[in-house]
Amino acid sequence: VKSLVRGDSSFVNCGTSIMVSLRLQKRLAASVLKCGKGKVWLDPNEVNEISMANSRQNIRKLVKDGYVIRKPVNIHSRSRVHRKNLAKRKGRHMGTGKRKGSSEARMPTKVLWMRRQRVLRRLLDKYRESKKIDKHLYHTLYLKCKGNVFKNKRTLVEFIHKAKAEKAREKALSDQAEARRIKARAARERRAVRQEEKRGMTTEKETPKDEAPAAAAAPEGEKKEKKKKAAKKETKA
Predict the structure, then answer these.
(1) pLDDT of residue 207
(2) How far from the centroid of its chain's Cα atoms is residue 101's Cα?
(3) What is the b/e burial string over 164-198, where b = at least 16 CB atoms within 10 angstroms of the residue's CB?
(4) Strand partners for 19
(5) What are residue 131's phi and psi, to 5 degrees?
(6) What is the mean pLDDT of each run of 10 residues along the chain (237 residues)?
(7) Phi, psi at 118, each rounded to 5°
(8) In 3D, which of 170, 171, 140, 167 has the Cα closest to residue 156?
(9) Could you tell me if 156 and 141 are in contact, meaning their C-beta atoms sit under 8 angstroms apart?
């Protein structure tokens, strides 16, 4: 084997055919294209022109001409993975033979607790902002959530509806009681007014009867006084 060197390119004479080594060009192309040497494709029909490129600037020109190309990324299909994950969501491939680790290690109860608390507290915040519950009911329900009273969001919503209905019923009863009290107070006031009117009428009727004897008694008293005076004068005389 006789090797001939022309510039930076190497030629290998194998009998009648000459094989060109493009190791340098591939290394420079990998550096220019920012990939590995296995990703570089050199056009086999333009070996002579590629072999003359001995600098990165020449390699950039070959890339622009299309003689040197960066190979595309190999397809790594995940369709089978997606299919299996979809089946796992339905409960397939999740039997005892497929499990590694205890149930607490696979899904900790603390994680479940945190998820449930966040769901319930998020619902309470939303209801408070939309004025569906006041701050007092919010605080009560917050402590109940912390005390593990509600196992999911549905039970919390049902409790809220019942609490609001009970509060509305109590308010209606209190309003009715207040209305009855106001009505009774008004009736008492009307009764008192009527009684006062009756008393006034009776006094007006009684006063004329009392005045007549008094008027009759007045002249009699005057007559007696006159008689007394006359008797005194007579005794003096």
Answers:
(1) 61
(2) 35
(3) eeeeeeeeeeeeeeeeeeeeeeeeeeeeeeeeeee
(4) 12
(5) 65, 20
(6) 41 56 96 96 95 96 96 95 97 96 96 98 97 95 97 96 93 93 93 88 67 56 74 71
(7) -65, -40
(8) 140
(9) yes
User: pTM for this one?
Assistant: 0.52
What is the DSSP pairing of strand 68-70 with strand 40-42? antiparallel
Count how many Cα atoms sit within 13 Å of the Cα of residue 77 in the half-sphere of its side chain. Answer: 3
For 79-117, give the DSSP string: HHHHHHHHHHHTTTT-SGGG--S-HHHHS-HHHHHHHHH
Pairing of strands 68-70, 9-14: unpaired
Other Cβ atoms within 10 Å of 54 Cβ, number: 14
Q: How many CB atoms lie within 10 A of CB 50?
A: 22
What b/e sequence results for 108-128 when a residue is b if at least 16 CB atoms lie within 10 Å of its CB, and e otherwise? eeeeeeeebeeebeebbeebb
| Residue 120 near residue 150, CB atoms below 8 Å | yes
Asked whether the beta carbons of 121 and 115 are under 8 A apart, the reply is no
From the list 123, 130, 132, 131, the residue with the least C-alpha distance to 150 is: 123
Q: Give dist(CA 40, CA 72) in Å, integer.
A: 10
Residue where the block lists tokens 């029909």: 45
* Size of the chain in residues: 237
Distance CA 141, CA 135 (A): 10
Residue 181 CA from chain centroid, whole number:
42
Residue with tokens 């790594």: 76
